[in-house]
Structure to design on (676 residues):
């Protein structure tokens, strides 16, 4: 198994765990191995700035891929509306009446109101990006790294094929759902990365997310334990200092406790996870507008190790 | 002073709605608020949507209970709750809640059955905007009206839409604009509209297949009734939530994103004229601002070399920690000012992750001034 041979990497995890940074670093690392990489972020035409874009000094991204800077690395937004357009064009013959109907407010309201149709648009746009080829027939984007929204929305997307295959068994949708499943539900083609923090509740949620993804037939390649604090204490120091601080709380004690809590959370994660666990250090001084080079190097090293 | 104000709310209000971003410890805070009020002798119910499994275990309730359940008596005694005080919890199961709402709100049993069996509904009911929150709130209203509990604490879902139960029905009906609906739902007398419906049906058949299109039409026809019901009742709900029995608390961590969310909720409560009592600054270091720095003088006389070495290493963490503690204390003061006549209470981050009962008691004690 080789990380770089996977076509799609879904990077997920709840808000505030550093998911976007990890996605950007993962994509940069893959590009540094000579792959044509596309880094995507779910967005919409009215959405504000692009979090992914900012990692590379751009305020906005478009639904069409643009170079992000590092050689081989492109970035784009995934828009549900773009997916809907692409879908409509692929299934509905063009004609003046049809075109007018597609542009109508009524239809767009309908599309917003029908649950799952939003996800369908996102799904379809991602699928088309994965399937895009160059004129010589080779793949336009060899590796797609998708910065996925909060966990609920990620699961809504990964469970979409099953839901729609049940809800809409005829018409053209099932075919596209199966094409998507061929990427997402085959661990040799698509994997998820669950990003979390070294704290007890986030770790429990990460374990639940690994299970949740599995229930939608998406395999997690690993859990990334982000911002793991550095621990300067020896075992005996830890023990004695803990006892002293329980008696006499002083400044520094909270950080000391946090280190202990991070170790406990890590142990819990390693005990509960049946997927690899990767630790990333706390990088307090990382520039906010670039994926930290250390992180990229670390991820690149894992990719080589595989 | 702030802690006293919080204690008074816990003693007097009938409903406390807890809002905030995800990951700030909202559910844990709600549970410890409930615990504090029960310890003070009130009959308390905490309602939470989609809690972590761990907290459900701690409270001894299952996510699939159809009704609220009281904590086992020995657990209640162990955490210092004595009669008349009582603590119950209810974890809402979105699908079950949704189904029950459909049963209750459909115009007759037959259309409820049709909707419950509808493939579209079956797959997406949990996602329908506002239904869960609304149902939770309606149940809550019933508990208070029937005097089952002295106080109900509602832990809202961690989304910007958490307050949507108050304006959801109108927004949902706006989505499903009736003029738009009529285009999809056949039966109009108007010839032009009939023609338009035909075109849309044709499009939907191409995109989804005709079977699914028919189910979609059925779904919208049936669901419209429910939206109308929600609409009729929302006036009464709004009035109840703006009343003096109810108060809103905002939970935030000191992180910028969490604060942004809290300020969003603050604006939202003002916009909807809801009574905002104050802020709980969770996972902050504000409460540790007065600690001493690690130094020779903090060491006991018989301190070992090991502990001396460890305290020396600890010094590296002390300055940044003291600084953030001071910042958080300033933030707490600012939040209190923002809340107007309200308050801001700072709670610590409990290293254990604060989901076992002992941790909840620890937090509850901070909410109950001696």
């Amino acid at each position: 198994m080789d990380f770089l041979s996977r076509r799609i990497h879904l990077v997920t995890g709840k808000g505030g765990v550093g998911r976007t940074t990890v996605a950007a670093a993962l994509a940069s690392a893959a590009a540094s191995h000579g792959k044509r990489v596309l880094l995507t972020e779910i967005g919409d035409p009215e959405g504000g700035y692009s979090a992914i874009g900012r990692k590379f000094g751009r305020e906005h991204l478009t639904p069409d891929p643009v170079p992000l800077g590092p050689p081989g690395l492109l970035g784009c937004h995934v828009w549900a509306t773009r997916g809907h357009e692409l879908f409509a064009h692929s299934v509905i013959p063009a004609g003046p009446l049809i075109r007018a109907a597609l542009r109508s407010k009524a239809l767009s309201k309908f599309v917003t109101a029908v649950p799952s149709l939003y996800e369908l648009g996102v799904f379809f746009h991602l699928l088309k990006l994965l399937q895009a080829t160059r004129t010589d027939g080779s793949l336009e984007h060899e590796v797609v790294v998708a910065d996925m929204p909060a966990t609920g929305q990620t699961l809504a997307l990964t469970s979409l094929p099953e839901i729609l295959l049940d809800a809409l068994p005829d018409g053209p949708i099932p075919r596209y759902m199966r094409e998507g499943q061929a990427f997402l539900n085959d661990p040799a083609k698509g994997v998820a990365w669950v990003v979390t923090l070294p704290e007890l509740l986030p770790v429990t949620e990460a374990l639940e997310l690994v299970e949740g993804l599995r229930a939608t037939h998406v395999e997690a390649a690993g859990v990334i334990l982000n911002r793991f604090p550095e621990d300067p204490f020896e075992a005996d120091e830890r023990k004695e200092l803990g006892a002293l601080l329980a008696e006499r709380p002083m400044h520094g004690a909270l950080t000391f406790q946090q280190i202990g809590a991070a170790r406990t959370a890590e142990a819990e994660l390693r005990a509960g996870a049946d997927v690899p666990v990767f630790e990333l250090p706390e990088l307090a001084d990382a520039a906010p507008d670039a994926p930290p080079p250390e992180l990229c190097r670390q991820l690149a090293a894992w990719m080589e190790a595989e | 002073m702030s802690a006293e104000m919080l204690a008074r709310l816990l003693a007097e209000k009938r409903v406390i709605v807890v809002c905030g971003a995800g990951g700030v410890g909202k559910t844990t805070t709600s549970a410890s608020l409930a615990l504090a009020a029960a310890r003070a002798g009130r009959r308390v119910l905490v309602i939470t949507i989609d809690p972590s499994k761990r907290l459900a275990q701690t409270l001894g309730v299952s996510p699939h209970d159809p009704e609220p359940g009281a904590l086992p008596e020995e657990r209640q005694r162990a955490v210092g709750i004595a009669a008349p005080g009582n603590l119950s919890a209810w974890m809402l199961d979105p699908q079950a809640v949704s189904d029950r709402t459909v049963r209750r709100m459909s115009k007759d049993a037959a259309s409820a059955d049709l909707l419950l069996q509808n493939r579209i509904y079956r797959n997406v009911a949990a996602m329908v905007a506002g239904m869960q929150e609304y149902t939770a709130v309606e149940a809550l209203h019933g508990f208070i009206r029937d005097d089952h509990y002295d106080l109900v604490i509602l832990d809202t879902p961690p989304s910007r839409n958490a307050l949507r139960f108050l304006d959801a029905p109108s927004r949902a009906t706006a989505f499903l604009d009736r003029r738009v609906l009529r285009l999809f739902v056949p039966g109009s007398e108007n010839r032009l509209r009939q023609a338009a419906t035909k075109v849309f049906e044709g499009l939907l058949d191409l995109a989804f297949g005709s079977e699914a299109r028919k189910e979609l039409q059925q779904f919208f026809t049936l669901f419209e009734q429910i939206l109308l019901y929600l609409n009729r009742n929302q006036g009464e709900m709004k009035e109840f939530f703006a009343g003096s029995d109810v108060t809103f608390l905002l939970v935030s961590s000191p992180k910028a994103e969490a604060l942004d969310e809290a300020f969003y909720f603050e604006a939202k409560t003002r916009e909807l004229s809801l009574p905002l009592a104050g802020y709980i600054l969770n996972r902050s270091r504000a409460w540790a601002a007065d600690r001493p720095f690690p130094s020779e003088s903090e060491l006991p006389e018989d301190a070992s070399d090991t502990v001396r070495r460890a305290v020396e290493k600890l010094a590296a963490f002390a300055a940044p920690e003291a600084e953030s503690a001071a910042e958080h204390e300033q933030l707490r003061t600012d939040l209190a000012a923002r809340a107007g006549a309200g308050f801001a209470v700072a709670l610590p981050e409990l290293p254990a992750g604060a989901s076992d009962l002992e941790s909840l008691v620890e937090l509850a004690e901070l909410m109950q001034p001696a």
